């Protein structure tokens, strides 16, 4: 299995976000198995024609999301994302529900706001 990344300079999405999204998607889909060793920041930056800081920013975001983990000098690896991602999503959903209740929104209004945000994030 290999990492397959395509950065499109003609889209409005920042290169680091394209990279983050593609690695995350591949990890969640199982195309990159748990324990898969990712290229070094410099190596991937060179391969993709990006600045090392761009790749480092994507790796930091992926680590914060629980998608990857850095093991010191051993490298960066795909983490077991399901549990960490599910826990973070559940915490975010709980915080959102509490906030919309405090704001006095109805359940329908809160769900409509979520649907609008998801359409914006995922397109369509």
Q: What's this, in brief?
A:
Helix content is 60%, strand content 6%.
Task: Give a description of the structure.
By secondary structure, this protein is mainly α. The chain has two domains: 65 residues, Winged helix-like DNA-binding domain superfamily/Winged helix DNA-binding domain (Arc Repressor Mutant, subunit A), CATH 1.10.10.10; 41 residues, no CATH class. 60% of the residues lie in helices and 6% in strands. The chain has a three-stranded antiparallel sheet with strand order 1-3-2. The two termini are 31 Å apart. The model has no long low-confidence stretch (mean pLDDT 90).
Main sheet characteristics: 3 strands, antiparallel
CATH topology of the largest domain: Arc Repressor Mutant, subunit A
Helical content (DSSP H or I, runs of 4+): 55-70%
**Total helical elements:** 5
Q: Which shape, going by the Cα principal axes?
A: globular
Low-pLDDT residue spans? none
CATH domain class of the largest domain: Mainly Alpha
- Tally of strands: 3
Shape-level CATH architecture of the largest domain: Orthogonal Bundle
Strand % is 5-15%
User: What pattern of helices and strands is seen along the backbone?
Assistant: HEHHEEHH
Count up the domains.
2
CATH superfamily membership of the largest domain: Winged helix-like DNA-binding domain superfamily/Winged helix DNA-binding domain
- Return the structural class: mainly alpha
Strand order across the biggest sheet?
1-3-2
End-to-end Cα distance, whole Å, is 31 Å
Mean pLDDT, to the nearest integer, reads 90
How much is the radius of gyration in Å?
Answer: 17 Å
